[in-house]
Amino acid sequence: MRRIRGIIVRQLLCGICVLMLTGCGRAGHLQDKDILCAAGFDGSSVTMEFYTDEKCLTVQTDDISAVPAAAGIATGRDLLTGHTSLIILSRRSSMDALVSALKEWKVSPECIIAVSDEQLLSGGEAQRLIGSVRRAQEQQLAPDCGIVTVLGGLLGISHEAEVPLLDKNGFCGTVLLKRDT
Amino acid sequence: MPDQRPLSRELDQNIDMIRRLSGGSSDVQINRFTAGTVNCALISCDGMLSSQTLAEMVLGPLTGIPPQNGSQELFGYICRYTLLSTDRPTVTDYGTLFRLIHSGFAVLAADGADTALAFGIQGYPTRSIQEPVGEGNIMGSHEGFTESLRTNMSMLRRRLKTPELVMDMTCKGSLSRTDMCICYMKDRVPEELLRDIRRSLEEMDSECILTTGYIRPFLERRRFELFNTAGTTERPDVLSSKLAEGRVALLTDGIPYAITVPHLFCESFQTLDDYAHKPIYATFIRWLKYAAFIAAILLPAVYLAIVMYHPELLNSTLLVLLAEAEREAPLSVVTEAFFALLMYEVIREAGVRLPKPTGGAVSIISGLIIGDAAVRSGLISTPLLTVTALAVLGGMVVPELDPQITLLRLMFLISGSLFGLFGISLAACVVLSNICATETYGFPYTVPFSPFVRKGMGDSAIRTGMRKMLVRGFTVEDYNEKDK
Amino acid sequence: MKRINERSFTALILIADAFPLLCISGSISLLTVLGVLTGMAAQTVIALPLAGLYSSGGTIRSGGRLVQTVYLLIATVWGALLFDMLWRTSGAVYIPHEGSGKYGKLLIAGCIGAVCLYIAVSGLSGLARAGAVTAVIGGALLLELVICGVMQGDMQRITELHSTGGLAEEIYRGIALGGGSGCLPVLLGSVRGAPLRSLLRTFMSRALFAVIFLLSAELLAAPVMAISDFPAVMAAQLSQPFPSQRIDALFMIVFSCIAVYSITVQTVTAALIAGELIPSCKRYAPAVILLLMTAGAVILEHSGSTSPVIAGMNIIALILLPAAHIIRTKMRIENA
Question: Which residue of A lies nearest to C157 if distances are taken between CA atoms?
Fold first, then answer.
C-alpha cells in the first residue's frame, strides 16, 4: 500500500512539473518584451522610449502604475520597467509618480529624475539626455538626482529636491522640485 | 552457498565428487600421480595458473619425494622439506577446494587424507599497472590499481611500509566468491568504525561482486542521499593518504577501485596535486573547484530564472543583446535549455560507450553539426549555448561528482524555470538539507564546514603549509559525531 | 532527542529571529533599535531561570504535559505568523506568481511547506547543520548591507527618523520580533554544553544581529522610510554596490532560504513536542503542524497589529517552563 502511494505521489509530482513547465512557454520569450529606457510624465500622459525600439509611445493616463498595462495593450508586448534610466517630470508633477516608479516599476536607485517644460522624448533622444546629465554631474553642474536622493529630499524636512532641468539641447540648469501639498 | 561437505579419505571418491560438482567442466584439470609411493591427484583450473611454475615448482619436486608411510607423512614431509609455494592453505571441504582452484591455486589431494594442500601459483593474465583513467595527476605517481587484488595490496604495502597497516582478507558473493581485503591502520582507525563496517559487510548478501556498486549500498545508509558516503579511488597514493588519516579501505579482486569509508564532501575537491604546489596556489585551485561546482549546477538555472523572471538583474546592454539573440529562436528558452543539456548528456554517454575508432566522429558531430549548425539555424541561441558549455566545463573540474552534478543541474533547471530565483532558493534548501543530513557511521558528510571543525579547515577550505599539516595530528576520528 | 552543538543552536535561533526582522513593517528609527536592545535585555533576564532548570538536569517534560501543549501552540502560532509575514512581503521581494491572488499565495505556501516538511523530516542534526550554513549566508548579506549602508547611507538622516509609537511600543515590537524566543526553551534541551553559556551567547548574538541589521537598514532606507512598507526589503533594494549592475533580486535568494529555515525551526520544535505528547503521531506531526500553520496564517491575514500579543507570547514562552517546574515541585513536596 505504501509502495503504491509512493508511486502515485511521485507520478503526481512529475505530472505537475510537466504541466507547469508547459505554461512557461510564454514566459520564456524575452524578445517579446519592450525594455523601457526613459519615461516622460506630464500629469496626464506618459511618453516612453525603449532600448529595443527606436520608436516612441505615448499613453494617456495620470496614474504611472497603470502605464505597463496600457503600454501592453498599445504595443501587444509586455513592458519591462526595471531598467528605466531616466524619468522626466513636469514642474507640476506629483511625488506619487516617483513613489510608484520606485515601488511598482522597481527602477534602479540610480534612475535619473529630471524636469522639463517640453516634450523631449521622440525616439533616440533618451541616451543623449542621460549622457548630458551624467556629464553635467561629473562637472558638478548638476546635483545627485537619483530617484532615491530626490525622494529623500521631497520626504525630508525641506520637502524639496534639486533636479536637473532639461531642454532639447540637453542639460540647461537646475530647478527645485517641491513636494505637492 | 558454498559446499561445506568435507573431503573423503578415499582419493577416488574425492575425484568423483569433484567431477560431479564441476559438472564435467573442461577447465578443471585432475592429474593423478604417485608421490612418495602415495597415490595423489593435483587439481587445478586451466588458465588460472602458470604451467611452467606448476611443472618446475610443484610436479617436479613432488615426484622426487622419497617413499613415505602414508598421506599424513607425505604432507608432513612436504610442509617441512619442500615448500613448493609460500601460500599454502589447507583444504578441508569441497567449497574451499573450488574457491582455491578458481583463484589460481593447485590443490594436492592424497589417498588416505581427509584434507588437501593448496599451493598458490597464480599465473592468470592480468592488466599491467597503468595510469588511472579517471583521476588525472601531473606531479604525483602515475600508477593506478588493477583488477588483481594481490597487485593492489602490494602497491599499497610499498607505500606504507609499516606493520600498523593491516590487510584483512575476506570473501564475499555466493557465486563469485570474490576475495576482498579490508585495509586499515590499526593505531589510528576508530574501533567502532571498523566494527560497524565489518557488520555491514556481514549483512551483504550478493551473489556476485562485479563493481563497487555492488558493495557501496551496504556501506551507506538506506535513506535517500544525493551524495555517496563511501568514496572510491583508483590511485594507491591517494588511498595511502586516506588510510593514514584513519579511514578504512576495501580492495576487491576484479575491481580496479578501492572503496574508502568515511567519505566527506570536501574530499571530492582534493587531489594529490594540491599537496605538490605551494599552499597559496593550491588554495586558489581549491576555491576554483568549489566555484566551478556551484557554476556547474546553478549557471543554466540562474540564466533561465533571470531571463524569464528577473531581467532587471541584467544590465541593459546585456539584456538587449540577449533579446536580439533570442529573437530568431522559435522555442522558449526553457525548451532550448533542456534541449542543450540533454544533447550534452547524450553526447557524453555516446563518447564513453563508443569504440575508440568512432570516437572522433562523435567530436565532429557534436561540435560542428550540433553546436555550430544548431546556432546558425536558430534552434538554440548563442548565449544559452555558452552558458551550457560553461556549466558543463565546470562539472568536468570535479569528475567524481559528475552524476550528482547532472541530476542537480536538471533539478535546479526545473525549479528555476517554474519559480525563478525563488524556486532555485527552495531547491537549494532541499539540497542543502539533504547534504547536511547525510552521514555515515556517525561522520557527517559536510564536516568540517558544518559542523564546523577548525582543525579540518586547514585541508578543506584552504590548504595550509605542509609543515603545519604534518604536526596537526589529524585523524578522521576528530570528525566523529557519534555518541557526542 | 538528538544533540546539537552550541554554535548550531545559536544559528537556529538567529535564523528564527532573522525572518521577522527581514519582514519588519512600518517606520523604524533609533528608538526601534533601543526598543529591541531593551527587549532583548529583558528577555535575557527572564530566561535565566530556564538556563538554571536545564543546568540542573531539567527537561521540557519538567513542566508537565500542559506546559508542553502550550509550547506546541506557541510554535504553531509562530509558524502561522511567519507564513503571514511571507505573504505580506512576497510582493515586494519579486517572488513569481505572488500577483496571482489566492492561487499565488497558496502556491507559495505549498512550495515552502513542502520544502519545510522535507527538511523537518530529515531530523534536527541535519537542520542544525543546514541552519549554520544558512546563517553564514545571511551573515554575508548582513555584511553587504553594512558596507553599503556605511558607504551610501546618510548618517544625519537616521537621527531625523521618527517611530510611530513611543519607547514602550518599540519595546513590545522588539520583543515581538524575536521569532526564536518561542522555540528557544525547547531546543535548549538538545544542546551539548553548558545551557547558561549557550543562552547568554545566543541572546548576545541575537541582540548584535538585530542592532546591526536595523541600523544598516535605517542608513540605507532613511531617505524613503516614510514610503517604505517594508524598510528591510527597501534597504536591500537600495543597497547596490555596483552602479551599473543591480543585485537586489539576489536578496530574494537569502530571503527565501531564511523563510524556509525559519518556518522549519518552528515546525521541528512543534514536532518534537508533539512527538513527546502523542508518540503514535510522531511520523505525521510535521505535516499536520504545517497544515495548521497555513490555516492559522489564513486566519491571521486579516488581523491588525499584534505586537503586544506576540511579545506577551514570547515572554510566556521564556518563563513558563521554569515557573511550572517550580509550582510542580512545590505541589509534590506539599503532597508528600
Answer: A156
* Domain span at B217: 149-274
Domain containing A169: what range? 28-178
Owning domain of residue C325: 6-335
In a domain, residue A139? The reply is yes
Residues whose CB is less than 8 angstroms from the CB of residue C120 and which lie 6 or more positions away in sequence, other chains included: C127, C264, C267, C268, C271, C286, C290
Contacts of B435 (CB under 8 A, 6+ apart): B226, B227, B265, B445, B446
Q: Is residue C267 helix, strand or coil?
A: helix
Residue C243 with chain A: CB contacts under 8 Å: 110
Distance in angstroms (rounded) separating the CA atoms of residues B70 and B474:
59
pTM for the complete prediction?
A: 0.88
What is the rounded CA–CA span in Å between residue B77 and residue B64?
Answer: 12
In the A/B pair of chains, how many CB contacts fall below 8 A? 68
Distance CA C215, CA B145 (A): 60
- Would residue B205 count as lying in a domain? yes
Does residue B223 have a pLDDT over 80?
no
Structural domain includes residue A17: no
Please count the structural domains in chain B: 3
C133 vs B430: CB contact, 8 Å cut-off? no
Q: Looking at the structure, do residues B284 and B379 belong to the same domain, yes or no?
A: yes
Residue C224 maps to a domain: yes
pLDDT tens, A109-126? 889 999 998 888 887 888
Q: Is A88 a domain residue?
A: yes
Does residue B103 sit in helix, strand or coil? coil
Quote the cell numbers at residue B192: 567502532
Q: What is the CATH number of the domain that holds A122?
A: 3.30.420
B201 touches chain A (CB under 8 A): no
Look at chain A and report how many structural domains it folds into. Answer: 1
Task: Please indicate if any CB of chain B lies within 8 Å of the CB of C96.
Answer: yes
Strand extents, DSSP E, B238-298? 248-252, 258-261
* Bridge partner residues of A33 (DSSP): A78
β-bridge partners, B232: B259
Both B261 and B348 in one domain: the answer is no
The C-alpha atoms of residue B248 and residue A157 are separated, in whole angstroms, by 71
Helix (H) or strand (E) holding A33: strand A33-41
Of the three residues B69, B101, B120, the one that is the final residue of a domain is: B120
* Residue C1 forms part of a structural domain: no
Q: How far is A75 from chain C (nearest CA, A)?
A: 22
Instruction: Work out the minimum CA distance from B396 to partner chain A, whole angstroms.
Output: 28
- The structural domain count of chain C equals 1
Classify residue A135: in a domain, yes or no: yes
Query: Which site among A14, A17, A30 would you substitute to test the B interface, given the most B Cβ atoms closer than 10 Å to its Cβ?
Result: A30
Question: Chain C partners of A10 at a C-beta cutoff of 8 Å?
Answer: none
pLDDT in tens, A5-57: 667 667 766 666 665 555 444 455 677 788 899 999 988 889 999 987 778 88
d(C-alpha B274, C-alpha C10), whole Å: 35
Residue C322 lies in a domain: yes
Short-list B418, B291, B435, A128, CA closest to C95: B418
B222 and B363 assigned to the same domain: no
My answer on whether B375 and B432 are in the same domain is: yes
Segment B385-424, tens digit of pLDDT:
889 999 999 999 999 999 999 999 999 999 999 989 999 9
B421 inside 8 A of chain A by CB: no
**Among the residues of A55-162, which ranges form H helices?**
67-75, 95-103, 126-138, 147-155
Contacts of C260 (CB under 8 A, 6+ apart): B425, B426, B429, C112, C115, C116, C119
Contact (CB, 8 A) for A171 and C246: no
Kindly state whether residue C131 falls inside one of the protein's structural domains. Answer: yes
* CB within 8 Å of chain A, chain B residues 277-306: 304
**What cell does B261 get?**
569509508
ipTM of the complex: 0.92
